[in-house]
Amino acid sequence: PGPRSYTTLRDEAVKLFNSLQQLESERDPVPLMQGVLQTCLDLPPLVDEIYCQLVKQTTEPPAPGGQGDLHYWQLLTCMSCTFLPSPPVLRFLRFHLDKTESRFPASEMAKYACFIREALGKTKGRECVPSLEEILMLMQRQEMICTVHCPGAPACSVAISSHTTAQEVAQELVSRLGLSQSPNLFALYEQSRRREQPVGSATLLADVLTRFE
Q: What is the band of 2 on the pLDDT scale with cuts at 50, 70, 90?
C-alpha cells in the first residue's frame, strides 16, 4: 500500500533486474538509480535482492572499470548509504569488497569498494532516498554542500555526507559563529512556504534536502 502501485515481489525483482541491465548503457543513470532506491525503500524485502544482483554484476565484468561496470559500483555506493543488508548478505558483500580491492588495487572499483565499506559502518537507514544532487555527489565519492541561513549572520555553507545529523551541523555552526560559550540552545529549522518546524537533532540532513527536492 502507498502512493505507488506495485505488483508481486517477484515481478518487482524482475523489473529491478531489467533496470540494472538498462543502467549499464544509460547516459544519465541518476534518475534510474533513484527509481531503484525508491523501490527498495517502499519494498524492504527487495534490498537484499538488489545487493546480490549488484554483487553479481560487479563480479567478473566483461570490461572491469568500464562505464557500465562503474555505473553498477555507483549504484552500490548509493545503496550502502541508504540501506543495510541482512547480516548474511552483509558478510558476502564485505568479502566481495575485499576481493575487489585486492584484485584491482588503486583502481576506481577499489576506491568505490573502500568508500562502500566505510559507509556501511555508518548507515542506519533513511527516511527518504538520496536526492538527485546527493546521488551525483555519491557517484564522485564527494560530500554535498548544504546552505544554512542564520539570523543576524550571512548564510553558512556546510559540507555534509549522507550520515551527517542536524545536531552535528548545528554544533559546527555554533563553533563557527563564536557562540560556544553562549547559554542559549541552538537548532536547525526547516522552512517552506506553508510551515516552519525544528529539525530533530538525530535527523539526517540528507533526508531534509530530499524533501526539499
A: low
Residue 153 has pLDDT above 80, yes or no: no
Number of domains the chain contains: 2
Same domain, 77 and 16: yes
Residue 4 lies inside a defined structural domain of this protein = no
* CB of 86 closer than 8 Å to CB of 52: no
Task: Determine the straight-line distance between the first and last CA of the chain, rounded to whole angstroms.
Answer: 23
Q: Given 139, 168, 201, which residue is the final one in a domain?
A: 139
pLDDT recorded at residue 130: 96
Query: Which helix (H) or strand (E) is 190 found in, with range?
Result: strand 189-191
- The residue range of the domain holding 112 is 9-139
What is the C-alpha separation between 36 and 47, in angstroms, rounded? 10
Mark whether 105 and 161 lie in a shared domain: no
Distance between CA 164 and CA 166 in Å, rounded?
A: 7
Q: Does the pLDDT value for residue 1 go beyond 80?
A: no
The answer to whether residues 157 and 174 belong to one domain is yes
Q: Which of 136, 102, 134, 137 is nearest to 117 (CA)?
A: 102
In b/e form, how buried is each residue of 79-98, taking b as 16+ CB within 10 angstroms?
A: bbbbbbbeeebeebbeebbe
Under the banding of pLDDT at 50, 70 and 90, the label for residue 3 is low
Residues 123 and 165 in one domain: no
Indicate whether this model's pTM tops 0.85: yes
144 touches 206 (CB < 8 A): yes
Quick one: average pLDDT of 199-207? 94
